[in-house]
């Protein structure tokens, strides 16, 4: 077993222990048997202690992250000043997860610990924030919650690099300068259009949805791919990009309205609960933990992104689910 795989497993176990220990309730005496079991687990493997320390650090700095999240997107100078104060440098290192393997980092993102977002990107949104910005070429950019993008406009190109999260862009015409959105998996070139691009760190995929006209979606490396290296996508088409190429999504698989988030809504046509919770996590600080037994429950309905408590209640009322809160930072979704 690789070091990264061991740490991923340890992080899963650390989150489970956090849920169990906090379920005892504030102000109550700890269960001595459970406490002894926890202490044995903690010293059983150095990865256990490492994972527990990392998890506690993420939860402890959640309030600090919320402070930064409230700042207007693009205020890089103020954020830099906040994070480069001597007493904040250790926090910055923890916040960005330096030294954490890619697999373990993706695991924490899937659980809802939103700490990987580049803090000094040209434009960035915090937990629960959305942003609309008119770009210098006349295009309109919309950023979903927990997103970060860098802009590079010059005489030859218009380039957006999406590091995290999701964006929608209405592209202004400029035949002499292509408009491109780039991610870790590939790029999307506008062909006079309105489209969305979403990064999914948990799966290592970039999702593309075309609302008007067309785009050319290309994977990062063409050699040795099992899928198409590049595809033209027309209005109504969706696809995902990964290390193997560009994969077209059938119309029957498009189960979540791609741009309902612009109005603060999560419009679900027919999607598994796991996908619904993935869309909810950027709008809630802390961890949303899901029991694998309920991951494939099919969900339909229109839910609020701006009131995650109400959405969780609605899911519990319409599905065989129980929603347990173990602190303001940890929510467990499990079978009823």
Automatic annotation (TrEMBL):
InterPro entries: FecR, FecR_N, Ferrdict_sens_TM. Residues 122-215 form the FecR protein domain. This is Iron dicitrate transport regulator FecR. Residues 13-56 form the FecR N-terminal domain. One of its GO terms (molecular function) is sigma factor antagonist activity. The lineage of its organism: Bacteria, Pseudomonadati, Pseudomonadota, Betaproteobacteria, Burkholderiales. It comes from Corticimicrobacter populi.
């Amino acid at each position: 077993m690789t070091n990264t795989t061991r740490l991923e497993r340890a992080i899963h176990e650390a989150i489970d222990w956090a849920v169990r220990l906090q379920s005892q309730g504030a102000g109550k005496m700890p269960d001595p048997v459970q406490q002894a079991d926890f202490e044995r687990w903690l010293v059983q493997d150095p990865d256990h202690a490492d994972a527990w320390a990392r998890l506690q650090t993420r939860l402890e700095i959640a309030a600090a992250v919320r402070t930064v999240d409230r700042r207007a997107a693009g205020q890089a100078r103020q954020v830099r000043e906040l994070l480069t104060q001597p007493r904040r440098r250790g926090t910055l290192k923890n916040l960005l997860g330096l030294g954490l393997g890619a697999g373990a980092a993706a695991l924490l993102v899937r659980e809802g610990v939103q700490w990987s977002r580049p803090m000094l990107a040209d434009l960035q949104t915090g937990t629960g924030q959305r942003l609309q910005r008119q770009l210098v070429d006349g295009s309109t950019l919309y950023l979903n919650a927990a997103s970060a993008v860098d802009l590079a406009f010059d005489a030859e190109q218009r380039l957006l690099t999406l590091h995290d999260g999701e964006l929608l862009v209405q592209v202004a015409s400029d035949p002499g300068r292509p408009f491109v959105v780039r991610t870790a998996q590939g790029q999307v070139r506008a062909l006079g259009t309105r489209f969305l691009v979403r990064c999914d760190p948990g799966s290592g995929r970039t999702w593309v949805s075309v609302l008007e006209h067309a785009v050319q979606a290309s994977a990062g490396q063409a050699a040795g791919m099992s899928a198409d290296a590049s595809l033209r996508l027309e209005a109504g088409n969706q696809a995902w990009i990964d290390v193997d190429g560009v994969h077209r999504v059938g119309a029957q698989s498009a189960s979540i309205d791609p741009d309902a988030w612009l109005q603060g809504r999560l419009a679900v046509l027919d999607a598994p609960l796991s996908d619904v919770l993935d869309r909810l996590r950027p709008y809630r600080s802390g961890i949303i933990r899901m029991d694998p037994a309920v991951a494939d429950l099919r969900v339909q309905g229109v839910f609020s992104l701006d009131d995650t408590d109400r959405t969780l209640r609605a899911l519990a009322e319409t599905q065989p689910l129980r929603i347990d809160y173990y602190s303001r930072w940890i929510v467990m979704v499990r079978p009823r």
